[in-house]
């Protein structure tokens, strides 16, 4: 009976060690993926900013306005979507619009006002992309705080 007790202890020990090694490998892999994503974003940022402006302009939003220019901030907040686990980058941007000729907004004085926002970029299949989504009236740090149920800040 005593012999079986030791076998059980050894089996439990091996399972515990395997579980700990698996968790360590998973954590290490996730950290490496995050670091790779950050480096890729840094390398591709200029191209991504241009794609953002094109994609945002193509949405037709806000109605009656044309995306004219974006001034980009240096700071980037890297976040993880709490529901999907996807990585995203939030970048501060100041956006300038102009009224579309003959549209509802033509002649409205506020059209020329600059608007600050967070541009959203997603990391999927080891590539950064954007759909032109902007979180208006929130710089990245504000967006992470206000949307803390959706985003978790990644520490680098």
Range of strand content: 25-35%
Mean pLDDT across residues: 85
SSE run:
HEEEEEHE
List how many beta strands DSSP finds: 6
| Derived structural class | alpha+beta
Question: Low-confidence runs (pLDDT<50, min 5 residues)?
Answer: none
| Number of alpha- plus pi-helical segments | 2
Biggest beta sheet attributes: 6 strands, antiparallel
Could you please describe the fold and organization of this structure?
- The mean pLDDT is 85.
- Strands 1, 2, 3, 4, 5 and 6 form a six-stranded antiparallel sheet that branches.
- The longest helix is centred in the N-terminal third of the chain and has 57 residues, at 2-58.
- The chain has a domain at 45-153.
- The chain has 156 residues and is α+β, with helices and mostly antiparallel strands.
- The termini are far apart.
- The protein has helices spanning 2-58, 140-146; strands spanning 65-81, 87-99, 115-124, 127-129, 134-136, 151-153.
- A hairpin with a 2-residue loop joins strand 3 (115-124) and strand 4 (127-129).
Short recap of the structure:
The protein is 41% helix and 31% strand.
Key phrases:
about 160 residues; alpha+beta; six-stranded antiparallel beta sheet; 6 strands; about 40% helix; about 30% strand
């Amino acid at each position: 009976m005593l012999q079986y007790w030791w076998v059980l202890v050894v089996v439990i020990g091996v399972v515990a060690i395997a579980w700990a090694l698996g968790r360590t490998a998973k954590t290490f892999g996730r950290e490496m993926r995050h670091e790779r994503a950050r480096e890729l974003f840094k390398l591709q940022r200029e191209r991504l900013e241009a794609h953002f402006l094109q994609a945002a302009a193509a949405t037709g939003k806000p109605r009656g306005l044309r995306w004219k220019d974006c001034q980009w901030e240096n700071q980037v907040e890297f976040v993880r979507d709490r529901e999907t686990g996807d990585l995203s980058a939030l970048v501060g941007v100041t956006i300038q619009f102009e009224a579309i000729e003959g549209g509802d907004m033509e002649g409205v004085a506020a059209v020329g006002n600059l608007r600050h926002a967070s541009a959203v970029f997603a990391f999927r299949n080891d590539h950064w992309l954007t759909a032109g989504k902007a979180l208006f009236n929130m710089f990245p740090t504000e967006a992470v705080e206000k949307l803390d149920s959706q985003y978790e800040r990644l520490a680098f």
